[in-house]
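tool=predict chain=A
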Amino acid sequence: MRLSVILSATEGGEDEGFWATAYPIIPHPAELIFGFVAFGILYWAVAKHVVPRLEKVFAERADAIEGGIARAEQAQAEAAAALERYRARLAGAEDEASRIREEARAEGARILADMREQARVEAERIVAAAQTQVQAERQQAMIQLRGEAGRIAVDLASRIVGEALEDEVRQRRVVDRFLAELEAAPAAEAGTSGGRG
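tool=predict ok
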């Protein structure tokens, strides 16, 4: 009933001038009621349909952002762990390279020592062989020299003495005495020259 009074008043009653002239800022009561009803319907529709969707989108967006941050932090942690592993491997590789260099140096020094030892042994063998060969050649030269010197001495003694030295024993004695005199002559000259100096 009150609504009908308000509606009738708005339709052209005597109060119309009162509302229009008395309070120009205050809206008409029918407009106010209609505005409240429309606002209530709009509020209910927004609260029922729009707000849940916005909350759902907001929650998904928040999850996406938080998940993105979490994934970024996880990726950053994985990158830091990978960097640490890389640094550890690099340090291990440097240690390994240093160890290999040291082993190579030690191996090179060992090989060099082995080669020097082999060269020393080979040089000693060559020197010993050369000394043996020189000794053998000297011995052979002495034998040839003795034979040649003996023959010359016998020929010379035969000419000096005027008789042939055909006897083997006599010939040997003459050769031995001649060679002994020859060997004693350089020793006597060395002693004399040493006494002069």
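The radius of gyration is 68 Å. The mean pLDDT is 79.
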